[in-house]
Amino acid sequence: MRISDVLEFGAARVPDAIALRFEGESWTYAQLDDQVRRLARGLAYHAASGDRVAMLTENNPEYVLAYYGVPLAGMALVFVNYRLTPREVELNLSDSTPTVLITEMKYLETARTAMATVPSITTLIVIDGAPEGALPFRVLLDGPEPGQPEPPEETAPAWLIYTSGTTGRAKGAVLTHRNVTAAVLNSAVSWEHDDEPGVSLQPWPLCHIAGYGVLVAHVHGDAVVVLRRYDPEGFLAAVQETRATSTSVAPTMLAMLLRHPSFAEYDTSSITRIGYGWAPMPAAVLREAMAAFPNARFQTGFGMTELAGNVMVHGSADHVAAAEGRTELLTSVGKPMFLSAVRVVDEHDEDTGPDEVGELVIRGDQVCAGYWNRPEATAEAFRGGWFHSGDLAKRDAEGYFSIVDRKKDMILTGGENVYSREVEEVLHQHPAVAAAAVVGEPDEVWGEIVVAVIEPHEGREPTAEDIREFCRDRLAGYKRPRKVLLVPELPRNTVGKVLKRELRALVTGVDKATARS
User: Rounded to two decimals, what is the model's pTM?
Assistant: First the structure.
């Protein structure tokens, strides 16, 4: 199965149903499928099968067209995070060597700078303008009536997405047609969905793997509402205007939504399903969200870029059970989805016992084909035929999985392992803490000490002693933060995941200008 098949099947089944909405405009499944075919044909005049086409824009309909149309042309779509610095953009483009770069006027200067240093880019296309030396996006769609393009192989690279780089320089995960469609089908059959097509609100950056949810919605025949970028009030307004029935958010997005002063002014009663993931969800935020959206079923899961989406799911029944007393379920990411194999292994790649911490490994058709231009990293990650995620996890006797920490985020202090997520869960319960992250700082005596970096609620500033006292009865002595830093805002990537590499630089003294003890 190929990525474009998802839309083609929808166009054959429900041609007149709305497939996409964006800022007052809408496209039916038949119209969107026609535009995708036109894009594939238009790209053939500027690049060859096997080339890469890079996308540097915020969310827009053209990005959705590129999701399908670039792979249909036999090319690989390179997702470029618009929040990267110009230097980081150049690094990703130098690594992926695209032939075509699609951008918008807002990022034209960055795109031109990249073209000057990446010789492979021969064509610049601008979505919302026609500056000198660039082609308008419409040119790609206004050619002759599109025929059926030569279908690419299912094993051909379709999407090239760079990892978030939370622990170092990003690597490009190569996702084939088979990888992406396997992930989409896995979610379509494993995640809960209403019997009839609904309206799916998409607030995620389309440059993130979470955008695969667009394809999942199209499998079900949903209308997908795309926001240009996430902001809490824009999200609330979109729910009210479109009567959205489902959405998916990161924990940070949800927390911002619940704290927005205008939350109660909008009608969100149409929402019946909320998915969340891609970063740890503080239990306190989840409980608040379940109360704020009483009509919604909540579900979560676990996934990552290299997996083309999710491989585990934690359904609404478990969330209800958690709300009724089984609070331990709130920290779980659920059980493997129908088309995924998931294990927890020790340092010898042997299965761990119940509740023993080890590394999460995954096998299935949706696991990426490898890292672009990184044969050694690919071999290391795929040893033994299983993808090694780098996440520390445990599996209980009932088969529920919990993510304990990233391997690189575990703190070793005085010979004891401290899992940063456990400490963060406690810190999030403090009434003055809006967000918190925990890292280790090198120490001559202890090896590492636990450091809490806190983003306080507006108008509140807890002292270090307040935090330590709060943790006293909630954490063992070796787990308690020995140092507390207050920052105006935690550094995050596009989807709200905290960048711990930047926090490590902060606590080791590289940049303490904005931190207070």
Answer: 0.83
